[in-house]
Amino acid sequence: MHDGDDWLLAEEVPNIDFFFCQVWLRSFVNDMRKSCGMNYSKVLAVFKGKDMSFYYGRKNALDFALNLVKKIDANPSYGDEINENIVRVSDALEKHAESIPSDLSKKTNAELWEIIREHVGLHTEFYEWGWLPNATDMFHPELTDLLKKYLRGKADSDELVNSWFVTLTSPGEKSKDALQHQEFLRIAIEIENDPFNKGLFLHRQPAEIVRLMKNPARKMLEDYHARYAPVTALWVEEPASLEDFASQLSQYLKQGKSPALEFEAVDGDLKARCKEKQRLAAELRLDEKHERLFGAFGNFMLTKLYRRYAQIRALYKMRSVFREIASRFGITFDQARFMLPHEYERLLLGGNLAVAGLNEREKFCVLYCEEGFDSILLGAEAKELEDSTVQKISSEMVELKGQCASLGFAKGRVKIILSPADLQKMEKGDILVAIATNPDIVPAMKKASAIVTEQGGVTSHAAIVSRELGVPCVIGTKVATKWLKDGDLIEVDATRGVVRKLSS
After folding, report:
1. How far is residue 319 CA from its own chain's centroid?
2. pTM of the entire predicted model
């Protein structure tokens, strides 16, 4: 802990649960070497209710990124190996989740422990591979810098380098978000072609729509809800209802857009990006090694969303386990999600609920991990560690710099979006500012004239979706949600990765 390596803020995540966090926090210091030959040396997480911030050692995070990028640079096929394993472990995690019955009342305590043990094991392996794309670029943009250095030998300006980089790292397939959007559009097309259903969506309230709508659109909407409602729940939220999805369709259809044309545009935009990528690669005469590196980097974008959808669904299925534990041992649902694996084992196999400070943990605690060692700190000890992580923001700062995720320029009013509860304040043309984005705030992203995030690398959710939407995006600004406030007038120069405040 006192190794002289200052803390680096890795992520701030609102509305998240302890059980999920401890899986990856512990894997970072114990299991990463299985996939890349190196663990992080320490990690610290501060929990305040359902809000969490976690930290690495600053130098250690850089060393980890350099080690990983060196491996990818030396052997470009390793990037392909990372992507293949992310898909493999994501499928395994989701398959396990699907095996969890909704009714666990007849399961023994030992059987509940086995479900948790298997989930933790699979989710740990999931992070051994799934975290690597983040680590290459999220805190120290080492992979981006490596590829841009290669492009600078062929360009005469940073703007041109950024433009080429965005083109060459564009994925060759649709992301999970794009595929979900096309499913949404298929339902809208079916509704448009049925006068009765179209009338419902244009003139009735969501509850009436759900009660009265007819097949095949009804069946399509029910299937869509079954697939994607868990994704909207993210970590601790309630999932979207059938009425919520009906409301989204209603709002879309009232805009008078053509879902059929938009559906075709998704395919057309992908084909155009792929064609431009091939043209540019030929024009620049990319060597085989760098063509493969750019390809693996682009596929990181796809596999990051692939894994995100899988793990959200898996964690949603685990809620039934924690509800059963809460019922059996007389604790709350949230308390049942606030333990370490060995505490679940002790509780379920030994009946021992002697979990120190369980009530206090819910309010404020710190989890510190090194290899083979976990410690949950409370009270004054936790506060002392939290104080050692405090960031300072200069009051004289006039602009933020980040990475270019999607090219373009925009000017508009800031709307800070931290959770789905903030979606209602987003208006068409606003600039969305977030710590990071997730599938649950895509409706707000579709209204944005630009997107700015504190966290994430070029393979982050914000980068992927902003490219698919054609919206300017700057990521990795570190302090955007603290430096800006709702209503600030800003300009976003995403081609240069700069955000300027024009007025408050």
Report:
1. 20
2. 0.88
Residue 406 token pair? 């999607």
**Which pLDDT belongs to residue 83?**
97
CATH assignment of the domain containing 448? 3.50.30.10
Listed residue (194, 206, 192, 66) closest to 137, CA to CA = 66
User: What's the confidence (pLDDT) of residue 140?
Assistant: 78
Among 216, 237, 265, where does a domain finish? 265
Bridge-based pairing state of the strands 364-370 and 373-377:
antiparallel
Number of domains observed in the structure of the chain: 2
Q: First CA to last CA across the chain, in angstroms? A: 40
Residue 76 lies in a domain: no
Q: What domain range includes position 255? A: 176-265
**Domain end point (choices 239, 265, 291):** 265
Within a domain: 467: yes
DSSP string, 371-407: TTEEEEE-HHHHHHHHHTT-----TT--EEE-EEEE-
In a domain, 321, yes or no: no
- Residues of the chain with pLDDT below 50 are none
pLDDT at residue 287, rounded to an integer: 95
Asked if the structure places residue 190 within a domain, the reply is: yes
pLDDT for position 141: 84
Contacts of 329-337 with CB under 8 Å at 24 or more apart are: 329/353, 331/358, 334/17, 334/50, 334/362, 335/359, 335/362, 337/17, 337/18, 337/19, 337/20
pLDDT tens-digit map of 360-381: 998 999 999 999 999 999 999 9
Tens digit of pLDDT for each residue in 447-466?
999 999 988 777 788 888 89
Alpha carbons 358 and 338: distance in angstroms, whole number: 7
